[in-house]
Amino acid sequence: MIAFTDKINALLMSNDVSGLIDALKSHDFTVRREAAVALERMADERSADALMDALRYEEWQKDYPILAGVRAAAARALGKIGNPSAVKPLLRALEDPDDEVKIGAMRSLSEFPSEESLRAIEKFVDHPSEDIRRNSIESIAGLDPELGLRYASRALGDSSWMVRKTAAKVIRRFGDKRCLEVLLDNLNDPDTEVRRHILLAVVNMGEYAVDPLLEKLSDPQWQTRAMVVEALGEIGSRRAVPRLKGMLAGRRRDENRYVRGKVAEALGRIGDPAALEDLHMALRDPYLFVRRKAREAIDIIDVEPDLEEFHDGEISFRYPRFWNIFETRDGERLIDAWSDNLKIAIKRRRAEGLTADEFSEIILEVLNMRGLLNIARSNITVDSEHGYMITADTKNERVVTFIFKKGGYIYYIYFRGPIEDLKESYKYIRVFINTLHVEIQGYGERGDG
């Protein structure tokens, strides 16, 4: 296996299209699959005819499931190459017995706008497979945004969270205001990631969504009110402040403690000093969650003039303007920053079998081995996930690390600098951590996340 993989890689690196086409006809079906994947990566026009031949399904292939991988790669490659002669073979591939081949054909057909492609894909919006349903909606949206939005709006009621998430992402991408009502009706989706994308789709509509959201604050379900409040905070409209203040403290305060906490959080995001009196009143709320969110909001409003917002599609947070933020994207490291003597980094690592607790134990062991002093670990919530804050000192410096897990990755945020500098930056670090959000991409999904 290693030998033929090395050979295919060598052909790919040398841009040897002819050699890969020959490998695509190998009697060894594993070689065929590797060659098809290599040609998909290469996306060279010279391989189009061979890939169209490889895409053709014949009855005898049902006994060799590995060949479905060849056909799926061929389908995807033809979309990347963009030769219109591939349309008819791709349309035939929609009838392939393998779902991945169907999906590859849909994705590629969305690169060739035509009524024929649109109608062929439209037949799959009610398919039993959730993967096919979500890919059909996304492909239709690529061909005809108007029709795609209609199917996406309907799909917000799908039984599969994956389909609902894709539907919300499609609506978010095109930002059609006519979809606002259906989005608001589904703010209380049972899945966290779906709710997040619905929320982002509403937020993308900006001020247009504020009045309908304010009307929705009277919804009898506390979960819906909480999402509405969060959307108002994300939009950041000061028109919402009077109503939100009334929900936080005094005679008209919301009966649900979680909603009150989200109200405090939203007021912090909006950043209007007019909310400070009510936030200070909320510091006396009987519930810790509300008091904590009020304290965080007061911190944010206090430093609001100094703040910038960072959002790269995966990570978002607020930070002081005097931190120099650099995107790195070199493997595990996502962000580098510094402020005078303070160094900051955001890292991640794939960790399917590792918990945040186990990873924090590893960090504690490393710090002990390096002889750091005053090592301490405490529980903390980051982006609604349970995590840990670890602090440790050298002779002149302090290290503060935040650790949490989301979507199969361990995220760890690292601050290091002179103890006094770190003490002075604590309020900004709190704002940074309290506003941090990681947007999870589903495995194998398309889209912008």
Give your account of this protein's structure.
This protein is of the alpha+beta class and 449 residues long. Among the domains are: 123 residues, Leucine-rich Repeat Variant, CATH 1.25.10.10; 127 residues, Protein Transport Mog1p, Chain A (3-Layer(aba) Sandwich). The protein has 21 helices and ten strands. A seven-stranded antiparallel β-sheet has the order 3-4-5-9-8-7-6. Strands 1-2-10 form a three-stranded antiparallel β-sheet. Strand 8 and strand 9 form a beta hairpin. Helix 3 runs parallel beside helix 5. The C terminus is likely disordered. GO terms for molecular function: lyase activity; oxidoreductase activity.
Task: Provide a quick synopsis of the model.
The chain is of the alpha+beta class and 449 residues long.
Keyphrases for this structure?
53% helix; 17% strand; Phycocyanin alpha phycocyanobilin lyase CpcE related protein; ARM-like; Leucine-rich Repeat Variant; 449 residues; lyase activity; Protein Transport Mog1p, Chain A; PBS_lyase_HEAT; lyase; alpha+beta
